[in-house]
Amino acid sequence: MRIISTERSQVLAARISEKMGVPLVETKFSRFPDGEMYLRCGELDDETVIVSSVVDNDMLVQTLLAVDAADQSRITLVVPYLGYSRQDRRFGPGEPISARAVARALSTGIERAFVVNIHDPGVLDHFNIPAKNVTIAPAIGGYVGDLRLKNPLILAPDEGAIEFAAGVAAVGGWDCDHLEKTRLSGEEVRIAPKTIDAAGRDVVIVDDIISTGGTLATAACMLREQGATSIHAACVHGVLTSGAYTRLRAAGVSSVVSSDTYENASSFISAANAIVTAIREDAHP
Ligand code: R5P
Q1: 229 lines ligand 1 (CB under 6 A)
Q2: Is the CB of 214 under 6 A from ligand 1?
Q3: What residues contact 197, with CB distance under 8 A and at least 6 apart?
Q4: Which residues pair with 114 in a beta bridge?
């Protein structure tokens, strides 16, 4: 078995390689003069694990090229971050179900796929091969423990993320709740934990994705007003677009961390353990 990584998943791929005791294959990436992408993998074996977060269009193409380059072997595709997965339905006429389009394209030539904390697990049904979702809630809980907060309150930004938040909270037996939006008037909304008072608490807001940071920044401002002692943010996929990191820090969020599913300077948490466990536990012939 060998491991190939595309360009934006190199750190995570190296960690997976170390934990599995499986060599990484050196891969060369470049472009043709017209901008088209090129890659060349070193020597492969009869089984290949491709680690490739689809963080942008280039990485989607690199994933397809890597799968084709490894076509002599049995391929497990690990897509820690599956771009386009939030367009998982038609919100208006004439739109594609982008998550389905990407899942179908990535299904060709592989035997099985793994994703990490996908926004909606229903997207897995669009793969034409067995596809599994891996959660790193325990790893995020481990990070929260390292913060050494006294009696932290783990908050999901909405009800949909409560299962994930509960998985994080279970690590330390911490309190867990979700934020609820109440419209007070035409212009005014109140965002507060549904049942637990945030006053005097160290709060950790956890989410699958931080993209623009808008969701968390609004919540952080309101939690401050409600008397939270400190506010931290931890997510799986730190997309952090449009100045999200600064936006959150400016909103009074003391720390912002994410995982290596989307590699950037805030990726202090690793998904490697959870991915390796899932690959090993999968009943793969
Ligand atoms: C939405 O349901 C997701 O779980 C995230 O809360 C959302 O994608 C975050 O986006 P943003 O950071 O742009 O507010």
Answers
A1: no
A2: yes
A3: 226
A4: 78, 132
* Under 8 Å between Cβ of 238 and 217: no
Span 172-197, pLDDT tens digits: 999 999 999 887 887 777 889 999 99
- Cβ 260 under 6 angstroms from ligand 1: no
| Cα separation, 109 vs 285, whole angstroms | 16
Torsion of CA 46, 51, 52, 53, to 10 degrees: 150
For the Cβ of 202 lying below 6 angstroms from any atom of ligand 1, the answer is: no
Same fold, 2-134+270-281 and 137-260: yes
137-260 — its CATH code?
A: 3.40.50.2020
Q: Map out the domains of the chain as residue ranges.
A: 2-134+270-281, 137-260
Closest atom of ligand 1 relative to the 210 alpha carbon: 12
The one catalytic residue in 19, 28, 150, 181 is: 181
Q: Is the pTM of this model over 0.85?
A: yes
Which architecture does CATH list for 2-134+270-281? 3-Layer(aba) Sandwich (3.40)
Of 68, 62, 29, the residue nearest 48 (C-alpha): 68
What's the gap in Å between 157 CA and the centre of ligand 1? 9
Q: How far apart are CA 220 and CA 248, in angstroms?
A: 8
Residue 19 appears among annotated catalytic residues: no
Question: For residue range 47-87, what is the model confidence (pLDDT) as tens digits?
Answer: 999 999 999 999 999 999 999 999 999 999 999 999 999 99
DSSP 23: P
